[in-house]
Amino acid sequence: MTDVVSAAERVKPQGGWTAIRTQGLSKRYGPVDALKNLDLEVSEGEVVGYLGPNGAGKTTTIRLLLGLARPTAGRAEIFGIDCQRQPVEAHRRVAYVPGEASLWPSLTGAETLHLLGRVHGRVDPVYRDELIERFDFDSSKKVRAYSKGNRQKLILIAGLMTRADLLLLDEPTVGLDPLMEQAFRHCIHEARERGQTVFLSSHILSEIEALCDRVGILREGALVEMGTMAELRHLSALTVEATFDGSVPDLTGVEGVSSIETVGRVVRCQVRGSVEPLLQALAVSGVHKLLSHEPSLEELFLAHYGQRAETEGATADAG
Amino acid sequence: MPADPAVSAPAPAGRSPSTVMARLTAKKAVRSGALWGCFFGICVASSALTYLSSYKTPAAREKLVASFGSNTALASLFGPAHQLQTVAGFTAYKVLGFLSIVGAVWGLLAGTRLLRGEEDAGRWELLLAGQTTRRRAAAQALAGLSAGVAALFAVTALVTVVTGRSSKVHFAVGEALFFALALVCSAAVFLAVGALASQLAATRRQAAAYAGYAFGACYALRMVADSGVGLDWLRWATPFGWVELLQPLTASDWLPLLPAAALVVALAGATVYLAGTRDLGASTFPDQSNAPLRPRLLNGALGLAARLMRPTVVAWGAALAATAFMFGFIAKPAGAALSGSNSINRVLSHLGAHGAGAKAYLGVAFLMMSIMLGFIGAGQVTATRAEEAEGRLDHLLVRPLSRRSWLGGRVLEATAVLVISGLGVGAFTWLGGASGHAGLPFSSVVEAGLNMVPPALFVLGVGALVIGVWPRATSIVIYGLIVWSILVTLVGGFSNNNHWLLDTSLFHQMAPAPASAPNWTAGGVMIAIGAAAAMVGGAAFRHRDLVGE
Ligand SMILES: Nc1ncnc2c1ncn2[C@@H]1O[C@H](COP(=O)(O)OP(=O)(O)O)[C@@H](O)[C@H]1O
Ligand SMILES: [Mg+2]
Fold first, then answer.
1. Which residues 6+ apart lie within 8 Å of A298 measured at CB?
2. Nearest-CA neighbor of B384 among B336, B312, B280?
3. Cα nearest neighbour of B301 on chain A
4. What strands lie across the sheet with A94-97, from one edge to the other?
5. Are both A30 and A120 inside the same structural domain?
6. Which residue of A72, A119, A129, A261 to mutate against B (max B Cβ within 10 Å)?
7. Is A100 in the pocket of ligand 1 (CB under 6 A)?
8. From ligand 2's centre to the CA of B133, what distance in Å?
9. Is A217's C-beta closer than 6 angstroms to any atom of ligand 1?
10. Which residues of A touch B390 (CB under 8 A)?
11. Would A3 be classed as within a structural domain?
12. Fewer CB within 10 Å, N side or C side of chain B?
């Protein structure tokens, strides 16, 4: 191979390295197009969210970036290093945290951290101990005795303790309780401050919203949106359900409110942007009960990209 | 909002949840039992047919009786022989001992896999959730396992009865059924042993190890009972002894079925009882869930592999050393018993062994130990594949470790284990021989030990190839290769006209040292082919997706 270039010889491009670059990256599993023609660029120091419902192709993308799977077409680079041809080089700069991990059941937590640290080659021991404390992790037990949440903490610590230049996180908070999720968010903020690049996949909108500068949205293997959180604000809607004491007011025309359904004394609607106008409209009509929740990603996708008619019907029934 | 339909839906597709555990266990057990039933059937049929073609005249049969009928050296290896002048007696002698061992190993592995393994994998948790008690679940799983034994019996019995219909073989239907029953007896007992061990241990591996100890003890008792030192009554103390006492096809004694049935019932009862006294996923014996940091080996993938394989290698090593010592110890009297008999020498010469006395005996003993070595190699291959299949390899390969170093390291480590095992077998045989005054030259037994290594290395090389090109088939190809080789060697050893067939056996490619000089050329060729296969496998492994189960 002639195009193998050592890290020192590579010239740093203007405006910083590109941490991740993919060109036409595609993966087929038999008849399934798991990933279609992905062109993605993530600059050094960015925190990028990768959002998509289950089966959208998030894990496939990350496994291709790590060289665990071979692309059907296209290529991928990490800091200018080809992911398929020079995986070892690329991996020196990467830490990966999967959403579900099977580890060696007979090793203890501490032994697993020791092993994975040695294989990686570079660990910040002070930070590791801090992470163990922060996640309230008991590292003296054997892996087989850990709950799902504790195993997740273990691989999170193993990934974060390397302080790698690029963190590839594939739904890393699955199984963590809310307190630990808070600790995780803190770690990502720290990573951003240190200039690390973070690529975070998730199917939970709020998690991405809270952490990321930019978001890519993946649906059925294709990247359908890519932009800053502000650019994608139109996606973030709130479902509000209000029950009234007396007569039900007409909410049509209230700013940001759409998809209004009325059943008896209950009104359901979607709110985009500020809830202020809706609250003002409700305040004058004697609200007895007010519920609101963030729509699931699936609901959002239904609202924004349309879906086959039967799915829409089914969702309406369920509501 | 209405309740989420996914939560309240009953377990799998509308069927009664109350027997789901029995059905799921039965499905897996029956598939496996039927498959092994085919193997049992093939063994029975091929033994009967081999006998008919190899020992045609009454004179030839009488000679067979004279040499094998009362030979204690062979009895301690293969079990006692009755009525070898009949196809029935020969078939029973030929397959009963061997298939009892195969059946017992199947039973203990299936029992621990379908109980402890499924529980470890978390599947019981899903199924159990509020549907039934742990005791009922265990009882259902036992019912599923017995369906597996029933399948094993049904297929074995079918083939045996059909074989028996042949006018030359001529087993009565009742006798054939009883024979099939005797063949699956140890499988039933050790399935129950595996089920009980699954309640005692904290992991499937540990459960299999407990069941394995029970197996070893029972087998050792059987060997002592059959060694002709006046301890025949010990046969009543071991399931393998009961199987012999049944004397299927010759005397058909029902009495030894009683202790076997009683033991199965007792083990099943204890299993159900213990299942209720512990939590799901927990063990009856205290499990060390906290452990001190022992990072000595954990400096990389090689050290990790060494750490993971240590318990298995130690157990195999102890078993090999004990077996080798015992063979060495009894080599002198056993060899003397052999040398008087022409027919035995003829059989040995089919296996490739020449000469007489202790060395001829050890030629056969080393053949058996080389099969053990083949299994060690196969175990290394499947353990390597399991790291990938179960997703643990991901954690290593996403770090700066190349696939080539990982797979190459595993292969080299396994190679070292096999070479050391071969040398160890030689050394312990010599030690046993020295204790038994057999006067074996050190160099020739150690050479014989090394001579067993090439077939095992071949297994390793083919294993690396399959891991590279067809990972999901690794276990089936590797164990298929070994079982095929065993079958061919055992059948071929007693017949004269199957040289092309014999050549497909790994173990036949190896000279039967120390009965003859090791054939280093053949060994070298096997290693070269194995190495080439491993290279191809390694290249393929580097260019494919990692794949799960
Ligand atoms: N190893 C595989 N074999 C076959 N199909 C796969 C495999 N891995 C993923 N897929 C399919 O590819 C699609 C994308 O999966 P995945 O990347 O895991 O989605 P996500 O991580 O977004 O939930 C799914 O339809 C999935 O069934
Ligand atoms: Mg995924």
1. A53
2. B312
3. A119
4. A94-97, A166-170, A197-202, A47-51, A214-219, A222-228
5. yes
6. A119
7. no
8. 34
9. no
10. 102
11. no
12. N
**Which of A69, A103, A104 minimises the CB distance to B546?**
A69
A298 and A224 belong to one structural domain: no
Place of tokens 């294709």: A222
Q: In this structure, what token pair is assigned to residue A288?
A: 């007895």
A284 and A196 share a domain?
Answer: no
**Could you tell me if A47 and A211 are in contact, meaning their C-beta atoms sit under 8 angstroms apart?**
yes
pLDDT by position in tens, chain B (length 549): 343 444 333 444 445 556 888 998 999 999 999 999 999 998 899 888 888 887 888 888 887 777 666 666 566 666 778 888 888 888 888 889 889 988 999 999 999 999 988 888 777 777 776 667 888 889 999 999 999 999 999 999 999 999 999 878 888 999 999 999 999 999 999 999 999 999 998 888 888 888 988 998 898 788 778 766 667 888 999 999 999 999 998 888 999 999 999 999 999 999 999 998 887 777 777 766 777 788 888 989 999 999 998 888 888 898 889 889 888 887 887 777 666 665 556 666 665 555 567 888 888 889 888 988 999 999 999 999 999 999 999 999 999 999 999 999 999 999 999 999 999 999 999 999 898 888 889 999 999 999 999 999 999 999 999 999 999 999 999 988 998 888 777 666 555 555 677 777 888 778 878 888 888 999 999 999 999 999 999 999 999 999 988
**A162 with A185, same domain?**
yes
B298 to A104: CB separation less than 8 angstroms, yes or no? no
How far does A68 lie from chain B, in Å, by closest CA? 6
Tell me the C-alpha distance between B271 and B115, whole Å. Answer: 10
- Closest ligand 1 atom to the C-alpha of A52? 22
Q: State which of A232, A254, A276 marks the end of a domain.
A: A232
Q: Ligand 1: which of A58, A59, A200 to mutate, judged by most atoms within 8 Å of the beta carbon?
A: A59
pTM as predicted: 0.79
Of A27, A20, A197, A168, give the one whose Cα is nearest residue A97. Answer: A168
Could B398 and A118 be called an inter-chain contact, meaning their C-beta atoms sit closer than 8 Å?
no
Residue nearest to atom 12 of ligand 1 (CA): A34
Is the CB of A111 less than 8 angstroms away from the CB of B304? no
Per-residue 3-state assignment (H helix, E strand, C coil) for chain A: CCCCCCCCCCCCCCCCCEEEEEEEEEEEECCEEEEEEEEEEEECCCEEEEECCCCCCHHHHHHHHCCCCCCCEEEEEECCEECCCCHHHHHCCEEEECCCCCCCCCCEHHHHHHHHHHHHCCCCHHHHHHHHHHCCCCCCEEHHHCCHHHHHHHHHHHHHCCCCCEEEEECCCCCCCHHHHHHHHHHHHHHHHCCCEEEEEECCHHHHHHHCCEEEEEECCEEEEEEECCCCHHHCEEEEEEEECCCCCCCCCCCCEEEEEEECCEEEEEEECCCHHHHHHHHCCCEEEEEEECCCHHHHHHHHHCCCHHHHHHHHHHC
Query: Which listed ligand is nearest to A60 at the C-alpha?
Result: 1
Domain shared by A225 and A107, yes or no = yes
Report the length, in residues, of chain B. 549
- CB-based contact B545 A69, cutoff 8 Å: yes
If asked whether residues A96 and A219 sit together in one domain, one would say yes
What letter represents residue B202's amino acid? A
* Residue-range definition of the domain harbouring residue A172: 18-232
Rounded to two decimals, the ipTM of the complex is: 0.82
